[in-house]
């Protein structure tokens, strides 16, 4: 293999690139995985998450490009993700059809559609967005290594941190959160208590679409600055894994997103450290990391008992 | 867990009193209608994008069937069919092998990479046979990790197979850029196989014998899934995994076998493609064959015989589609939209059929999840 | 019958209008009329028992009242006015609360969370108010519940108390209890009765659904008997107060089964559908199955088993009694090979079989009739014929070199269907469409064919109609007479007392005593079932 001189790895430059870049790369994962956590808590498995994220990336980019403002882009991204999630709501939550098949359909369809739309809209060119404007938090941004990366981000990232805290509170201490968890644990109980299971799950899936769209939007607007077809490259599935490993706690989504973000970032960081490994090897790393995490951590069942099972009210 | 697709021959009597004719008609409608609807919807989208749908579809016909184009379609079908068969085998056991892309690419890389070296030492026929084995084994091996994780730890195979695909894509690229590379060319790719080392063609045509191989595989897989104990074990595991344990089947064994057979079939598909048509592989080679095949596997109710007409249809669509896309300026990814629409329409029509209870429902395992038998209270 | 017209006239004319009235309720499912023109009047401060066999229509009627199903005809009156109950929510709004037979509590949530589920109100969960209200209701009932306990960790009796509290939480004044004693110990039943008395005093109208005669006569203030979807008869307050228990039970048997049934066999036996008791087999034959210090872990809530030792002799029927959830399933699965023992040995014909898998044990003659008929017993989507040979997949003569021999399978299936009286349109019918009783017969046919030597039965008659129940129990006896050893695990103590030669008691995963069946056994077994004292 390739000799890795240990000393040269942990240079300032490498670490900053890794951590800073990792945090940057983790943000889309964070939004998307948080969204999926809400769905999965209510018992819906979104294999179509990749499609929602990709659609958000496209609509977000278009929104920011033509709207002139990043915020318009983010709004468009949310709308795009939600629009796709409506398909999930109608087919799976309301019509009780299989969640996995519809999820596959959504992802394939979204991949094709965004590619076609991109071609129709921009032809062969790939226009760029200007760099996103950051908001710094004074003092905190001076912390060495990750101060700059954590606390000098576009506003939407702080929104993400806030959402994590809000979701954690919401799940444990509010009425909607309780309904959500009941829907995923034992929908019959929720129904018997007089709350609409379908309604609860519909809201959950729409929220997921919004968040996944936002994650995709961040990817194209603040992350890459352009939209390329198929640009999510499996991050939607990584988000599902993060969600599975997070065991229902939003805080773990945050941690997981950044760990995986760093694995996505490893290529660039290593290059900066002067180590030359082929990009193909590096590209494998996040996915190998996923498999290793599943082997090591995904034992036992955290998953809600009613996951991926449509709810049909009583009767023979 | 869920109902499993059964062709008419598996269960001669319906529970409801439908005549064989209405039952058959119903089956045809449920299978063909989603496709038609998807094509119509696709046509509307094409129009919305400013192109002429009729022209587009006509181009597909021209590019896919006219003159000798039908032979290209047939050869495309011979690549797609083993993939479909591989999916049928696992889906019957309700195992989601979504890693076909990685299995395909790695097998292709192995075949394209080893081929030129082997043919220097072995005869042409022997080379071909060995390469088919290599492809099958590569595909099977690439399913091992997800298979073992599922069999022993019940790890969700959707995620693991997808991850293996991404890893496989990178690994294939490494192989092509590395030990298998043809350094005489500018673009990273493998050494081309000699023309006379490729699959022989059927006399009188330019179609390679991969078509025959695919046809034989169809018969073999069909027999295995419907008339053997192995096929029954797949069905039981797919319908009710707990019952599988209870009646003494070893789920681990069935999972492993099903997965590996699936991977092997996908590998064979790659071999047919490389040895029949391409002869070499570029580092960025990545046709999304498996993605397109999924809806047809479901439409055919996981029946190896029934899937053939669908595959033929889609082959025409994709060969002709390349041509039509060039002519119209639409990216060929558009076909993915049609694929997605087909799945959605299929799922929706199943819903309608369930509502009006038209005859017996030939719904596939995944879809039946919504119809799980309720336990008596 | 004359009496129910009388009751009807009573209800609408009187000053105290009934809390709830069901008038002419009819509900039809494909192939069966579940409810046929049923009239029912439920009064405040009374326990109205709804009595009937499984399948008589009780649960359907109650699901109409609780909003889970819509009737095809008829009307409902609450507090004198006509209403429509189209969802559980409307039922709750009208003051009708239901305690289901199968828990509707979410095990993973706390007691308080379960109680607050479905409450309207603000965004935040008002836990302080919730805890106060819980304490209040619990005091009314005379019970004590910890609001923060994880519901799944509570005993079944405690969970039922939470269910009752939940039903009262919304201010229900009509409470429907669906077979509430099916999972309770004798002590639990006594506790429940106390709670019911206090509820009556508080003016709640109670509907008590059961299939056990003695419960109806002892707990009920009024009894309505359902038979095949119709009201077959009623017993009013006067009847229940003035007549003797035997008299009442005879009357009920007459109503339910007709004149001939009375006097032809002891009433208790008919109710319990027990075959004539045979001579107890002395435990002297060869030991066919032995467990020596076997332990196994359970899943999640269930206890698993610990240090279980027993010996099963040839021709013997050994019963395992216990309240549900004390390790029954784990015991059965360890013997069958579906679960690994963490300690101890399982010996078949004297040799340890711990390493053998399910298939090998089956081949040796060890069979397992599971209680989870649909969940693991049959594959609903496969034909009856295939299900019958499902434990012999790959074996001759049904498979030769892996190839399916359809003719052979069909022949064998037809024979088994005839022998075990399985009612099915054909052997190609999907097994999942059969009724519960016939599915059980399919399971029996499968397990008892091809030379069984030792058979484990887990809750073999649970949820079955009387005729099939009798058939199953008779067959177990016939097995034993042929020299086959039977291990019968059941939560129905009466069944075990009528069937078994010896009875062991499972409590929290341990075998706490084994008794010869005979006089006095019932009380001691009952005590051990709830852990009152050691043997």
Task: Write structural notes for this entry.
The complex is a heterotrimer of chains A (316), B (377) and C (535). Chain A is mostly helical and 316 residues long. Chain A has 13 helices and 2 strands; from the N terminus they run αααααβαβααααααα. Chain A has one domain: ABC transporter involved in vitamin B12 uptake, BtuC. Chain A has a two-stranded antiparallel ribbon. The model of chain A has no long low-confidence stretch (mean pLDDT 84). The model of chain B is unreliable at 1-18 and 357-377 (pLDDT under 50). Chain B is globular, with a radius of gyration of 21 Å. Chain B has one domain (8-371): ABC transporter involved in vitamin B12 uptake, BtuC (Orthogonal Bundle), CATH 1.10.3470. In chain B, helix 2 (53-64) crosses helix 13. Chain C is α/β, with parallel strands linked by helices. In chain C, strand 14 and strand 15 (351-352) form a beta hairpin. In chain C, helix 8 crosses helix 10 (245-257). The longest helix of chain C is centred in the middle third of the chain and has 16 residues, at 186-201. Chains in contact: A-B, A-C, B-C. Chains A and B meet through helix 5, helix 11 and helix 13 of A and helix 6, helix 7, helix 12, helix 14 and helix 15 of B.
């Amino acid at each position: 293999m390739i000799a890795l001189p240990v000393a040269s790895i942990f240079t300032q430059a490498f670490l900053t690139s890794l951590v800073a870049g990792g945090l940057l790369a983790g943000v889309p994962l964070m939004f998307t995985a948080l969204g999926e956590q809400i769905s999965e808590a209510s018992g819906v498995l979104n294999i179509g998450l990749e499609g929602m994220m990709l659609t958000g990336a496209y609509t977000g980019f278009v929104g920011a490009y033509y709207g002139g403002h990043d915020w318009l882009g983010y709004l468009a991204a949310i709308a795009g993700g939600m629009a796709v999630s409506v398909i999930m709501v109608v087919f799976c939550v309301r019509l009780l059809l299989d969640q996995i098949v519809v999820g596959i359909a959504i992802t394939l369809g979204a991949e094709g559609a965004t590619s076609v739309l991109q071609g129709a809209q921009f032809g062969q060119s790939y226009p760029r967005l200007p760099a996103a404007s950051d908001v710094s938090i004074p003092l905190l941004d001076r912390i060495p290594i990750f101060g700059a990366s954590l606390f000098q981000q576009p506003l939407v990232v702080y929104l993400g941190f806030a959402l994590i805290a809000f979701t954690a509170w919401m799940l444990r201490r509010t009425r909607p959160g309780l309904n959500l968890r009941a829907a995923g644990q034992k929908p019959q109980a929720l129904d018997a208590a007089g709350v609409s299971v379908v309604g609860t799950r519909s809201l959950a899936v729409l929220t997921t679409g919004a968040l996944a769209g936002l994650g995709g939007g961040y990817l194209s607007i603040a992350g890459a600055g352009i939209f390329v077809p198929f640009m999510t490259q499996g991050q939607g599935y990584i988000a599902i894994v993060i969600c599975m490993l997070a065991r229902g706690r939003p805080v773990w989504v945050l941690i997981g997103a950044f760990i995986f973000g760093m694995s996505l970032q490893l290529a660039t960081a290593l290059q900066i450290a002067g180590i030359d490994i082929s990009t193909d090897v590096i590209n494998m790393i996040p996915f190998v990391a996923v498999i290793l995490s599943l082997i090591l951590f995904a034992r036992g069942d955290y998953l809600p008992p009613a996951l991926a099972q449509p709810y049909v009210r009583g009767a023979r | 867990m869920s109902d499993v697709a059964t062709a008419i021959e598996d269960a001669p009597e319906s529970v409801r009193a439908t005549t064989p004719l209405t039952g058959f008609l119903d089956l045809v409608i449920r299978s063909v209608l989603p496709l038609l609807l998807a094509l119509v919807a696709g046509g509307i989208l094409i129009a919305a994008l400013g192109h002429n749908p009729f022209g587009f579809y006509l181009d597909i016909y021209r590019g896919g069937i006219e003159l000798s184009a039908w032979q290209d379609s047939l050869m495309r079908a011979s690549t797609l069919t083993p993939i479909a068969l591989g999916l049928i085998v696992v889906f019957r056991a309700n195992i989601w092998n979504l890693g076909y892309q990685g299995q395909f690419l790695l097998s292709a890389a192995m075949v394209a990479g080893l081929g030129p070296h082997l043919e220097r030492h072995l005869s042409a026929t022997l080379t071909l046979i060995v390469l088919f084995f290599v492809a099958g084994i590569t595909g099977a091996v690439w399913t091992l990790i997800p298979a073992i994780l599922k069999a022993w730890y019940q790890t969700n195979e959707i995620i693991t197979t997808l991850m293996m695909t991404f890893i496989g894509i990178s690994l294939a690229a490494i192989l092509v850029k590395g030990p298998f590379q043809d350094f005489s060319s500018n673009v990273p790719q493998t050494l081309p196989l000699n023309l006379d080392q490729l699959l022989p063609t059927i006399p009188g045509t330019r179609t390679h014998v991969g078509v025959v191989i695919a046809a034989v595989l169809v018969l073999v897989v069909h027999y295995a899934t419907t008339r053997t104990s192995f096929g029954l074990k797949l069905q039981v595991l797919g319908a009710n995994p707990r019952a599988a344990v209870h009646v003494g089947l070893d789920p681990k064994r069935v999972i492993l076998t099903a997965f590996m057979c699936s991977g092997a079939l996908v590998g064979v598909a790659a071999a047919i493609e490389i040895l029949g048509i391409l002869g070499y592989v570029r580092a960025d080679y990545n046709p999304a064959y498996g993605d397109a095949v999924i809806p047809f596997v479901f439409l055919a109710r996981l029946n190896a015989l029934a899937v053939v007409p669908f595959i033929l249809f889609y082959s025409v669509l994709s060969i002709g589609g390349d041509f039509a896309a060039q002519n119209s300026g639409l990216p060929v990814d558009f076909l993915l939209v049609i694929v997605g629409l087909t799945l959605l329409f299929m799922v929706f029509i199943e819903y309608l059929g369930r509502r009006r209870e038209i005859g017996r429902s030939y719904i596939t395992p995944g879809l039946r999840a919504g119809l799980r038998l309720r336990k008596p209270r | 019958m004359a009496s129910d017209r009388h009751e009807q006239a009573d209800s609408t004319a009187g000053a105290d209008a009934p809390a709830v009235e069901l008038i002419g309720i009819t509900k039809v499912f494909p192939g069966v009329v579940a409810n046929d023109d049923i009239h029912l009047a439920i009064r405040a401060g009374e326990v109205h028992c709804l009595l009937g066999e499984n399948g008589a229509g009780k649960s359907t009627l109650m699901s109409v009242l609780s909003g889970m199903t819509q009737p095809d005809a008829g009307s409902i009156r609450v507090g004198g006015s006509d209403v429509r109950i189209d969802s559980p929510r409307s039922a709750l709004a009208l003051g009708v609360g239901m305690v289901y037979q199968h828990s509707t509590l979410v095990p993973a949530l706390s007691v308080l969370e379960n109680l607050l589920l479905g409450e309207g109100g603000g965004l935040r969960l008002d836990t302080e108010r919730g805890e106060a209200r819980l304490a209040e209701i619990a005091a009314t009932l005379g019970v004590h519940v910890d609001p923060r306990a994880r519901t799944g960790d509570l005993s079944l009796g405690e969970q039922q108390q939470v269910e009752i509290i939940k039903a009262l939480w919304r201010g229900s004044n009509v409470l429907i209890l669906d077979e509430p004693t099916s999972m309770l110990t004798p002590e639990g039943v006594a506790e429940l009765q106390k709670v019911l008395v206090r509820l009556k005093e508080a003016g709640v109208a109670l509907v008590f659904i059961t299939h056990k005669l003695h419960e109806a006569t002892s707990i009920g203030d009024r009894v309505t008997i359902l038979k095949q979807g119709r009201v077959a008869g009623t017993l009013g307050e006067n009847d229940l107060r003035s007549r003797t228990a035997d008299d009442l039970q005879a009357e009920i048997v007459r109503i339910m089964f007709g004149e001939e049934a009375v006097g032809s066999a002891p009433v208790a036996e008919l109710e319990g559908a027990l075959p004539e008791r045979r001579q107890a087999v002395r435990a002297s034959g060869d030991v066919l199955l032995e467990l020596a210090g076997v332990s196994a872990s359970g899943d999640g809530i269930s206890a698993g088993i610990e240090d279980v030792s027993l010996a099963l002799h040839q021709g013997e029927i050994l019963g395992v009694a216990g309240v549900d959830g004390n390790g029954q399933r784990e015991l059965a699965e360890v013997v069958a090979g579906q679960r690994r023992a963490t300690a101890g040995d399982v010996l078949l014909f004297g040799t340890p079989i711990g390493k053998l898998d399910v298939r090998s044990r089956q081949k040796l003659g060890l069979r397992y009739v599971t209680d989870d008929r649909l969940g693991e017993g049959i594959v609903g989507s496969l034909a009856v014929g295939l299900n019958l040979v499902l434990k012999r997949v790959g074996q001759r003569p049904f498979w030769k070199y892996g190839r399916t021999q359809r003719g052979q399978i069909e022949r064998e299936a037809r024979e088994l269907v005839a022998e075990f009286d399985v009612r099915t349109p054909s052997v190609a019918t999907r097994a999942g469409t059969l009724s519960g009783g016939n599915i059980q017969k399919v399971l029996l046919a499968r397990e008892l064919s091809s030379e069984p030597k030792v058979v484990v039965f887990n809750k073999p008659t649970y949820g079955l109609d009387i005729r099939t129940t009798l058939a199953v129990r008779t067959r177990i006896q016939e097995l034993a007479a042929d020299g086959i050893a039977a291990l019968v695990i059941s939560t129905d103590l009466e069944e075990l007392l009528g069937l078994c030669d010896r009875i062991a008691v499972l409590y929290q995963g341990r075998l706490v005593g084994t008794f010869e069946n005979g006089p006095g056994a019932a009380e001691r077994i009952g005590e051990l079932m709830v852990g009152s004292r050691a043997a």
